[in-house]
Design a protein that fits this description.
single chain; alpha/beta; SH3 type barrels; Ribonucleotide Reductase Protein R1, domain 1; 3 domains; 9 helices
C-alpha cells in the first residue's frame, strides 16, 4: 500500500482500485522537461524518474509508472486540482494544472503595495473550483508598523476565508500555517512574483531550500526566484508545494467557484424583481440598489461581470475548437 505519510488516503485508494489497482503508485515531487520525479515513500531521498508521454501530469499527482519505469501509465484521479487557462498564445484554450491533490491553497499577497482585491477575487474563484480549502496569507508584515488596514481590505472580498498575517523573517504566523498540514496534508503556495513565498517556504522548512532575491526598498517587492514547482516535506509533517510566481491569473471553466467567491452579489441577485435582470436599468434591481446605497462596491460588481464574460468566451471558443477537431477526425482534448 502507498505511504500514508506521503499523502495517500482512502479517496485515492478507491480511485486506484477503480483502475484495477495497477502497479505501485508514487507521487510526483517535481517535473523537469517532460520527466517526472516520483517518490514512493515520505523519506524517499532518491525519487525515480519517468517520462510524461501522452499524460497530463502536475506536481502533487499520484501516478503509476510503467513496469520498466520509462513512462507514466496512469494518473490516479485527483482529489483536487488548481487549474488555470494556459498562458502560452498557442495553448490559450488548454488547461494548465499548477498543483494537484492539494488540501489547502494559500493565496499569497504582500504588504508594501496596495492590496489587489481584483487579483484575489480571481484567485478565490480558482481556489474554490480546485476542491482545496483557500486561505489568504498577507506576508512581509515585519516591514510595516500596522498591517491591519491591508488585511481588512483583503478580507472585504475574502468573505469569511481566513486572512492570516505572516512573516518569513520574524516567523510571525508560521505556527498557524504549519497547523494546516496536520494529518500529512498537502499545502500549496500560489501568488505573484516577489510576494515573499520563497522566504516563507524556507522558514517553514527550517532551511534555505529556496533561493531568495533582493528586495527593492521603494516598494518592498522582490524578484521571484522559484523556477520550478516542487513538493517538499515539512519537518513537522505534511507537504508543501511551492510554485513559480503566477503573473496571469486566467480562469478555466468554473464549477461553483464564481458563485462562491461572489456569494454576496449572487445573494443580492436573488432579490431582483426579474429573474433575467441585467442589473443595469431594470426596475427594482437589488444589485443597483445596493450600489446606490454604498453597500456594494461597483468595482466588485464590474469584476464579477468581467469574470463571467471571460468564462463565457472560453466556453464558446472551446465548443468551436471541439467542432473543428470533430471535423478533422481528431480526438477531443480532455
Amino acid at each position: 500500500m502507498p505511504d500514508p505519510e506521503l499523502g495517500w488516503n482512502d479517496t485515492l485508494q478507491r480511485a486506484w482500485e477503480a483502475l484495477g489497482a495497477p502497479g505501485a503508485p508514487g507521487r510526483v515531487s517535481r517535473i523537469d522537461r517532460g520527466w517526472s520525479r516520483i517518490m514512493r515513500h515520505a523519506h524517499d531521498l532518491d525519487p525515480m524518474r519517468a517520462r510524461n508521454l501522452f499524460v497530463d501530469v502536475a506536481v502533487g499527482d499520484w501516478v503509476v509508472p510503467s513496469v520498466d519505469s520509462e513512462r507514466i501509465d496512469h494518473v490516479i484521479e485527483r482529489t483536487s486540482a488548481f487549474v488555470r487557462r494556459a498562458s502560452f498564445e498557442g495553448d490559450r484554450f488548454e488547461a494548465d494544472t499548477l498543483a494537484a491533490n492539494i488540501d489547502v491553497v494559500f493565496l499569497v499577497h504582500a504588504v508594501g503595495t496596495p492590496p489587489n482585491q481584483r487579483r484575489l477575487e480571481r484567485e478565490l474563484v480558482l481556489a474554490f473550483d480546485s476542491g482545496a480549502q483557500p486561505v489568504v496569507l498577507l506576508t512581509k508584515v515585519d516591514l510595516v508598523d500596522d498591517p491591519e488596514p491591508a488585511r481588512a481590505e483583503l478580507a472585504e472580498v475574502a468573505l469569511g476565508v481566513p486572512v492570516l498575517l505572516v512573516s518569513g523573517l520574524d516567523r510571525t504566523g508560521l505556527a498557524a500555517v504549519r497547523g494546516f498540514a496536520a494529518g500529512h496534508r498537502s499545502l500549496a503556495f500560489l501568488g505573484a512574483s516577489g510576494v515573499g513565498k520563497s522566504t516563507l517556504v524556507n522558514a517553514l522548512l527550517d532551511d534555505d531550500v529556496m533561493d531568495t532575491g533582493a528586495v527593492r526598498h521603494a516598494d518592498h517587492r522582490g524578484r521571484h526566484t522559484t523556477v520550478a514547482a516542487q513538493l517538499l516535506r515539512l519537518p513537522s509533517g505534511g507537504w508543501l508545494l511551492d510554485t513559480p510566481g503566477v503573473r496571469a491569473v486566467s480562469l478555466w471553466l468554473s464549477g461553483q467557484g464564481i458563485e462562491r467567491a461572489f456569494r454576496d452579489v449572487f445573494a443580492l441577485m436573488d432579490h431582483c424583481r426579474f429573474r433575467d435582470c441585467k442589473h443595469d436599468r431594470e426596475p427594482d434591481c437589488a444589485v443597483r440598489a445596493a450600489i446606490d446605497a454604498g453597500e456594494l462596491d461597483p468595482a466588485r460588481f464590474a469584476s464579477l461581470e468581467r469574470l463571467v464574460a471571460e468564462e463565457a468566451a472560453l466556453e464558446v471558443e472551446q465548443a468551436r475548437q471541439a467542432k473543428l477537431s470533430d471535423r478533422r477526425g481528431h480526438r477531443r482534448p480532455r
